[in-house]
Write a structure and sequence with these properties.
The chain is α/β, with parallel strands linked by helices. The protein has helices at residues 29-34, 36-42, 77-89, 108-113, 180-199, 220-236, 249-254, 271-274, 296-309, 333-343, 411-416, 421-434; strands spanning 10-13, 46-49, 53-54, 66-70, 93-98, 140-141, 151-152, 203-206, 241-244, 259-261, 314-316, 351-353, 445-448, 456-460, 463-468, 474-477, 489-491, 494-497, 500-503, 507-512. Bound molecules: alpha-D-glucopyranose and calcium ion.
Length: 514
Amino acid sequence: MQDWLKNTVFYEIYPQSFLDTNGDGIGDFKGIIEKLDYIKDLGCNAIWMNPCYDSPFMDAGYDVRDYNKCAQRYGTNEDLRALFEEAHKKEMYIILDLVPGHTSDQHAWFQMSCEPEHNEYTNRYIWTENLWDAPNDYRFVCGTTDHDGNYMVNFFSSQPALNYGFHEITHKWQLPVDHPDCMATREALKSIMKFWLDLGCDGFRVDMADSLVKNDDDKIATMALWKNITEEIHKEYPKAVLVSEWSCPRRALGCGFDVDFYLDHNGHGYHSLFRNIDENGQNKSFFSKEGKGDATSFIGEYMEDLKATADHGYISFITCNHDTPRMSKWLDERELKIAYATILTLPGVPFLYYGDEIGMPFREGLTSKEGGFSRTGTRTPMQWNTDKNCGFSSSETPYLPTGKPGETVCVQQEEKRQDSLYQMVKEIIACRHEYADLQADGSFSVLYVEKDKYPFIYQRGNLIVMVNPSSDCVEVEVCVKQVSRESIFKIGEVTLHDQKAKMGSQSFAIYKMN
Ligand code: GLC
Ligand code: CA
């Protein structure tokens, strides 16, 4: 595990929507450079940037056409190098988004693979025996090329799956993982990683990391493949950080990733925390003030995962990402404060999604943009101020619409407003930087969690963190040593005295033990 992760808070940037400096309506590298101080001032010392490579943008850049070239709309490779350098000068880190599972169907490898004659790239992708062969248990695109066969896709039809081989071979056309052509795909991936690390990036967030080897239900071969890659990268680039989109920390951290996200779509108890609306529209999120949520299933899983992965890497909590509706869709400002304060005081490496610090809305009803579909409302431009397009761009046709300037939330106003969500985010991150107990490695144990009950109280090292998202006042006994009279951070009314915790409606506090 890399040392710099111990006290890191990431900021995720969707580059097309952050800041446009040349008026073409699309965010760019220069815009990110301009806002590094803003991000640092908020307390985030690392950035994850979504894909910035040459692409036809059928899936917002997760359809890579050239792995070694930046998309012109963001800037050149040299501009990106400048971004790395500027960040490093400010003691910040930047990780890129690596898309290993598939390319765009416009990638040169794929064009070669589509040729009817066998060549070096034929098996870089997965083709069936011939055009009439398309077993139902996989997703294929059929009959669109001169190659007599159908190709497997990983996500959208424009994203053919790269061939890292099959763990269990059930059809003649499936190659084993150690086939020279599959090994060549793996080596090509390593070269791409080294190319960007050499240019100065600090690591990668790895897209769909669990998807590489096919017919691999238990992920045995996928894990072995990653182990081979992560070992080589960590050996040659000891400070590089690898973050997986896997949402299975035991597997991901078990094969050399430094961090794995808990994500909403994998049915974790985690899912019940922030975005849990039942069929009747009732908000069952633990952080809803309605108080109908439950943190026990999350804690059950989390404690097991923590135990199983101790010393192997970190589990990461996110406020949101580019695939998920912003929490502000269901939670109001006070609810968000308590949710974020919790995320930012748990172990591991937290990620804040751009705009979440000001409670930017999830914008309903937008036409899909670049393969966003239901995710489009989460990807709208950062709202900086009350100028045109909320200060994002001077263009008449911004990447996506912002809210109406002056009527929607923006950084300029939230920085000034007392007690704003923005102020609170800044304060709790500062607290995390000040107290090592709150950081990635600080110990974690639960002091109070009961089925269908509030509050939730946990201990981080010498600190007690108390969370009551519900609108009810609650009182419980907790077995702790005497704490100092004053909390080191507080939202609402909280007291902790003589082992009695009293928490007012929608409150949160951190106490230090004497
Ligand atoms: C990941 C990305 C998502 C993308 C998909 C295909 O889940 O986060 O945005 O569409 O992979 O690459
Ligand atoms: Ca631009």
